[in-house]
Design a protein that fits this description.
alpha+beta; 11 strands
Length: 155
């Protein structure tokens, strides 16, 4: 997908983090890099509906968040902050977080494309680290999103 977007003159970014370490036969296998939020690619381009509709022709692209007429925008400052936090390891899988959430708990998303949005926990994490599934009210419907526990703040 990255090559297709580059060929179109569209800059793309997928903030990455270290995934879970695997333990096999007494050995620890270092976690591989994985996206902070699965299924979302940040792009920088002119927000004309014709250009955004062109993204739909790229393989594996399902839709533009917010639609082609009114896309969801992020400021350069928020993208830089989110990517910087990811590079520092703030969202790494093995990083412990002192937050305990249960299914149905309201939470606040603190960074990334869903920054400053309220969400509801659907599937909580069990060990104080890793990912949780939250439901976000977006575009008139509830959308489930898998996010790192470190991205959340309890309300």
């Amino acid at each position: 997908m990255e090559k297709s977007l580059d060929a179109m003159g569209v800059r793309s970014l997928v903030p990455m983090r270290k995934g879970p370490d695997l333990r096999r036969r007494g050995r620890v296998i270092e976690g591989q890099m994985m996206p902070v939020i699965h299924g979302y690619v940040l792009v920088q381009m002119m927000a004309l509906s014709e250009y955004l509709a062109g993204l739909l022709g790229v393989e594996h692209v399902i839709d533009v968040l917010g639609g082609c007429e009114r896309p969801m925008r992020l400021s350069d400052k928020e993208v830089s902050r989110f990517n910087g936090l990811a590079r520092k390891g703030n969202f790494d899988w093995e990083r412990p977080v002192h937050l305990v959430v249960r299914a149905g708990d309201p939470v606040w998303i603190t960074a990334g494309p869903f920054c400053d949005r309220k969400a509801t926990v659907v599937t909580p994490g069990k060990k104080g680290r890793g990912d949780v599934v939250v439901s976000i009210d977006l575009m008139g419907g509830e959308v489930p999103v898998t996010v790192p526990l470190a991205l959340l703040k309890k309300l």
